[in-house]
Write a structure and sequence with these properties.
By secondary structure, the protein is mainly alpha-helical. It has 3 helices and no strands. The mean pLDDT is 92.
Length: 87
């Protein structure tokens, strides 16, 4: 049975976060990228680039400062994937 798209996106986002982190992390939806996971601004940009490649989307850099938690990243990616699918 195929997974719902939201589960695939959530798993993809967490996978990207683990790949970009320079130390072992266990991201949860409530985790803050900077406070809880220790990402710096360069790593956040790396995450954005990997997410754009993985999901074939374009994340507006204006939205980045407001995106603080893993759940917010998942929601933003899901919305962009949905927009791309419906276009």
């Amino acid at each position: 049975m195929p997974q719902p798209a939201s589960t695939q996106i959530e798993e993809g986002v967490i996978d990207v976060l683990k790949n970009v982190s320079r130390r072992p992390i266990e991201p949860m939806l409530r985790s803050d990228l900077v406070t809880d996971l220790g990402f710096d601004s360069l790593q956040v940009l790396e995450v954005i680039a990997e997410l754009e490649d993985r999901f074939d989307i374009s994340i507006p850099l204006n939205d980045v400062p407001a995106t603080r938690t893993v759940a917010q990243v998942v929601a933003q990616v899901a919305a962009l994937v949905e927009d791309r699918s419906s276009a």
